[in-house]
Amino acid sequence: MSNPLTFGYLYDFRNPPQWERRPADLYAEILDFVAWSETAGFAGAWVPEHHGAQDGYMPAPNVALAAIAARTSRIRLGSAIALAPLYHPVRFAEECAVLDILSDGRLEMALAIGYRRRETQAYGVDFGKRGARFDEFLAIVQRLWAGETVDFAGQHYSIAGATLRPAAPRGRIPLYIGGFAEKALARVAKYADGYFGNEEVCGLYADKLRAEGKDPAAARIRIQSLFTLVAEDPEAAMAEMAPYFHHVNETYGAWLAEDQASGIDKVALKPMSLDAFKRSGILQILTPDAAIDHFRAMQQRINVEHIMMMLPPGLPPAKFQPYAQLFADRVMPAF
Length: 335
Known about the structure:
By secondary structure, the protein is an alpha/beta fold. It is built from eleven helices and 13 strands. A nine-stranded parallel sheet has the order 3-2-1-13-10-9-8-5-4. It has a two-stranded antiparallel sheet with strand order 6-7. The model has no long low-confidence stretch (mean pLDDT 95).
């Protein structure tokens, strides 16, 4: 058996116009589902970030994480991902310290630079300098988490006498960084505790770890598997679930095409009809036994520690719960 493998869900709190509901009701039901997922044995609850989306994609993950911390007691929680160039590093470090206190040491954050120009413009951030801004951000945040009083004069941040009070109980918060381009993977290897993203770039991540004098065998990898679903009857599940996952494909496909700055050479997610989406193979609906084989094979290829699936937007969480229960009952015990 390979290393232990855990599973969790991503919650983007979207409220697509075609299935729009009262936001307070939707948020409450998502939090109910997160609390239930902990009792079912899932190990993670993760919140991503985008801004200005028509479907209400979560713009304030730390606020949502505070609510999740209050509703749970064991499950790990964190951003996946937060857009680091849009945060002030002192404020971010402080908010993480408070979240770690609220969750009693369960916070694990994932960050990246983002790939949409309109989001950085809305915050008055230079899109072309977000990588350099991220590097300064990381240097400051890690010094604050280490307990230092920080003076810093850089191109993007100028800070004097910054310190964390209250401090994060564990000191450094576990930090994952996402990305796909070579520069992004170099940043992961230099600064992060692990990589969050896609399997196809894990070989490059290993190369960058070696360049930093680190052992790839000790790499910590979390894979986003947002279009993976387990069902006893995949055909029936496709008919029921494809419209919701199709919405995810359409939005990500459009966003990735805006500035072509994701670092992904061949973007699989592109706008298409619902029928084309069903035929595309993007949505993988596996039987429990096939899912076990799928994840075991992944364990043999890479040192994956956690798989992140998603609660599809637009679908009432109660209607998704039987799929999650099947996964908990039939797939997770194998790992």
